[in-house]
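Design job #97: recover the sequence.
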């Protein structure tokens, strides 16, 4: 996708996902696995409510629901690490999404390309972020 993608034109992202078909959980959320369009690397897992999904489909950029802040947030709004949506698919139970994106910059708030950069063995023995550290790439 070129620099002028769906987000720049305000058009709906081509997708087979109808927000009415999504089975949001009791909390109104659905997990969204974010995957790189180029090499299929899993970049992150985030949560979406109906509004964030609809905004994402219209803007062409990922918008998520922050469970900790209880508010919508557009990925990269402050860091510039935006995700331009290429495709959105839903699983067989209609309760999880895979969003394929063109990632600009790091996907992880730690500055790593992917949030899934630590082997399980090191995850058990070392913290992800020092307590009290501010999020770097939201």
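Job complete. Output follows.
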């Amino acid at each position: 996708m070129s620099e002028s993608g769906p987000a720049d034109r305000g058009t709906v992202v081509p997708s087979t996902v109808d927000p009415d078909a999504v089975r949001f959980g009791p909390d109104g959320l659905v997990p969204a696995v974010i995957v790189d369009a180029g090499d299929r690397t899993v970049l992150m897992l985030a949560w979406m409510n109906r509004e964030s999904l609809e905004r994402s489909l219209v803007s062409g950029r990922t918008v998520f629901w922050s469970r900790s802040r209880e508010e919508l947030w557009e990925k990269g709004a402050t860091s510039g690490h935006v995700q331009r949506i290429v495709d959105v698919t839903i699983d067989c139970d209609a309760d999880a999404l895979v969003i394929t994106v063109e990632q600009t910059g790091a996907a992880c708030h730690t500055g790593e390309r992917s949030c899934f950069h630590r082997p399980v063995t090191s995850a058990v023995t070392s913290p992800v972020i020092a307590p009290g550290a501010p999020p770097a790439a939201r």
